[in-house]
Amino acid sequence: MVSRRMLLGALASGLAAPALAWAEGDGPTPSVLTRKGRRTRRALKTQAADKAALDKTLAQVKPLEDPDAVEPAEVHPPQAVSPDEALGRLKQGNAIFARGGSSIVLPSMVRIAELSRGQKPFAVIVGCSDSRVGPELVFDCNLGELFVVRVAGSTVSQEGLGSIVYAVEHLGAPLVVVLGHTKCGAVGAAVDVATKHADLHGSLLNMVLPIIPAVLEAQEKHPADLQDAAIRQNVRDVAARLKVADGTLAEKQAEGRLKIVSATYDLASGVVAFDA
Ligand SMILES: [Zn+2]
């Protein structure tokens, strides 16, 4: 069995594709009896060299740690952080990302086994489903660090609210960030429905309806760019609604153990602008 780590090692050395093709028989048939003899032999020679190089690479890969061999003493539960510390971490992580960097190392099997015993994410991200705004990447975070709720338009349904309350109440997350992004298509659709009576139906209309109040609010301010203003208004509105949507969230905020803030990710620069 080829482990993920092994595969990554092989990918890094550019060998995985030919090696897998070879293993799966997708390459030239390894029959040296065909009439295309010379070409086939040359191909086979190359494959053999690739295979040898792959074997050499795999031989250097450390064997998988046995998750069962991890003693409880080796488990390091993350320290509880305050809402401001959590916010600072996200800002710092985004600063690294927006400079084109990353501090993320794929988790070891030991760490994965550790995480199977429980999670303590330091922030909840309520984000848009947009493929360009992956929270873990944007905030330079690893497995187990963010609890993510994503719907196009960064809105929150009852089920989404339950997910947020669960993360705050049971996992101890001290921070909720409602994250929108520039050029959000869901907000753009809501703008079209509100201003051009665009014809949306069924599920798509249901998706944009919760965004319409933010569009109307933004419209009153006569912005130069209505879609951009509506995007920023929408995340502010969702955050404001969350603050009073649930008793547990309200209680934690009153005790200073939870902050709920809004933010907007700029697709072009990679920078997240926080409203707090
Ligand atoms: Zn979006």
Question: Summed up, what is this model?
Answer:
This protein has helices spanning 4-12, 16-24, 37-60, 83-98, 109-116, 135-138, 158-169, 185-196, 202-208, 212-220, 226-243, 247-254, and strands spanning 123-127, 146-150, 175-181, 259-265, 272-274.
Would you spell out the secondary-structure blueprint of this structure?
Layout: H1 4-12, H2 16-24, H3 37-60, H4 83-98, H5 109-116, E1 123-127, H6 135-138, E2 146-150, H7 158-169, E3 175-181, H8 185-196, H9 202-208, H10 212-220, H11 226-243, H12 247-254, E4 259-265, E5 272-274
Parallel strand pairs: 1-2, 1-3, 3-4
Antiparallel strand pairs: 4-5
Helix pairs in contact: 2-3, 10-11
Bound molecules: zinc ion (ZN).
Bound molecules: zinc ion
Which spans have pLDDT < 50 for at least 5 consecutive residues?
A: 1-37, 61-75
H-E string: HHHHHEHEHEHHHHHEE
Sheet having the most strands: 5 strands, mixed
What is the alpha-carbon Rg in Å? Answer: 25 Å
In DSSP terms (H or I, runs of 4 or more residues), the helix count works out at 12
What is the arithmetic mean of pLDDT? Answer: 82
| CATH fold description of the largest domain | Beta-carbonic Anhydrase, Chain A
Key terms:
276 residues, alpha/beta, Beta-carbonic Anhydrase, Chain A, 2 domains, five-stranded mixed β-sheet, 5 strands, 49% helix, globular, disordered N terminus, binds zinc ion
